[in-house]
Amino acid sequence: MNKKELSTPIDWQNVDAVVFDLDGTLYLGNELLPQALELVNLAQKQGACYFLSNNTSKTPESTWAKMQKLGLTVELSQVLSPLHTLVAHIKKSDINKCWVLANGEVLAWLQFALPQVDFKAERVETELVVLAYDDSLTYQDLCEVAWRLQDGAKYWITHPDFLCPHPQGYVPDVGGLVELFATCTQRRPEVILGKPSPIALEAVLQNYSAERVLFIGDRLYTDWQLAQNVGCQFRLSLAGETNLEMWEKSDPQPLLL
Hints:
There is one protein chain. By secondary structure, this protein is of the alpha/beta class. Helix content is 36%, strand content 16%. The chain contains 10 helices and 13 strands. The strands form 4 sheets. The chain has a 5-stranded parallel sheet with strand order 5-4-1-12-13. It is globular.
């Protein structure tokens, strides 16, 4: 059977809110995927609609602007990011000295959100290390992280994705760095802020019961795992990282979009 024959229709009467992944689900690079606009428009007519990406090389505002450019008409408040979760949890933890691996755009966004926090703290002062998707990192940055982890700083990551989809092929993401630092520091993250952590859907689940939330994504180990972790409905898109063979081997198997 082909992908279309394997897909399971969505029962919209049992859905109060839809959460879409972005990279590899609705678009790839600067191109919308087939039927993405039609699906988003349909979901928005049915009820609440959110967009959750683990891509922390972009601020929520940048992600929103890209969506507008691609023809996805949504409000900024509908765009969810692990960066929102990071800000909330730094506030809860009363931490003021961090070292965040992130590009300049994201660091500026964090500094605006939390002006009292030092996001590039000196080594001896660092309470918390955070890995985001830094598409500008240098070898020196890797050393700065390694030294602080060796010193015993708390260790969080925005997400565990190994790869980020790109029109020219997949590129390394935070999950690859996690393995690098596990090798050279014997440390693994204590907190994951994005998918598949239930923390990632806190903003949605405050308003809707999990069983009436539908998540649509393309990755088994983040999107599908998040749906299982919180008990929400799920549809897997085969337009991104997961192909038909990977789906066939997965246990349990998610329903296909």
